[in-house]
Amino acid sequence: MTQDQIDRLAALPVPPGRLLIDGKWEKGEDEPLPVHSPIDGSLLTTVESASAADVARATACARQAFEDGRWSRTSPAQRKAVLLKLADLIDKHALELAVLGVRDNGTEISMALKAEPGSAAQTFRWYAEAIDKVYGEIAPTAANVLALIHREPVGVVAAIVPWNFPLMIGAWKLAPALAAGNSVVLKPAETASLTLLRLAELALEAGLPPGVLNVVTGPGRTTGEALGLSMDVDVMVFTGSGLTGRRLMEYAARSNLKRVYLELGGKSPNIVFADAPDLGVAAKAAANGIFRNSGQVCVAGSRLLVEASVADAFLEALTKATRAMTLGNPLLLSTQIGAVNSPQQLSRNLGFIDTARAEGNDVLTGGARARVDTGGWYMEPTIISGVRPTDRLFREEVFGPVLSVTSFTTEAEALSLANATDYGLASGVWTANLSRAHRMIRGIRAGVVHVNTYGGTDGTVPMGGVRQSGNGHDKSLHALDKYTDLKTAWIAL
Question: What percent of the chain has pLDDT over 70?
Fold first, then answer.
């Protein structure tokens, strides 16, 4: 990958995005939506705004594809071959996909290439290789009975994917759902649909039968609601805000009681004890853990909890590491902090800074909009100290490059602060004390606990949260539980 290759791809026009229904690209009933690039605010292209009728056609086609068995009744080995080919195609077009995604959502290219097409290809390959190695069960019954436990695909899956890492998170949902034999209706975020539309093209090229994967773009208030209320959808999976997650559960209750699995973000604590193996390493990791992708990461370590005896020294190292990070055009390889996805998100981020100042918190660095002259949406990486558990910045997810800092004096206080939130997605612990590390792992209420690192897992382990961070898990073999039903066969011999 060179800067010249990136620049050439970034100069290409982006055709309008269409709906994919039953293997055909179509216009929707409603007016298309403009897509503005967060890099400079320019109009990039348009995507369709699917109406309720468009969604109904997509879900009906997905249902027909499932019922006639064009995919659901193929062997695991056949599905494996198609998904492996799709993974190869993602690798082949990785730079194209990464540049398209950066133009659409503002993630810095140095992160996007690995986190988006790189991760997506690995995910499809992992589930492709796994699916013909997942077996049913034989129950230990009496000699005159044979009891078999079958795993069967659930039917039609609706997947709603957010704008921060659409390819990565999309693959977390699409790969296991398709590997298990389901049909899928995918709704990308309206501000980051382009890479998933391209992925759907590649899926057809790989040999996925028409109707098995359908893509409907549009706003949540129409397209998402229609999916939530659909009687043709058996399972809905979603990553996004808690408010939207609650609505989806309401839609399920008002329709067919479809199962709804939610990943709703977090307010993750990153806890630094005085005996951390290397405070300098911890400071750089803390900066990366909140400021890469402009803080638009669900597992971002947005609450720094630091032991009081080393707080001043650590904050000095953290501020130095933050100021050394390059904020700039996300299409430049040298950029480490890219753009904020939308002007609405930027305004929300800055509103948290105003509230923090009003509540008496100290802005150590940042706190303002950046690169205004570009026309794009950028924000300075911001560190705010003196944050109390009652403050808004301690309790609410910003989803931007804003780090709150709170000090503690004892292990018990650190654990209490870590759990003083409604969320429970991720966390980090920095300590050289093995016993303390294990106590914190057991005590922190979160789906992921990093120890002496922050961020980084692979497909072998589940990703999910507890409490108001949601339910269900992406990644690992456990994700297949969302996309399969258990059926018991009780046979008298």
Answer: 100
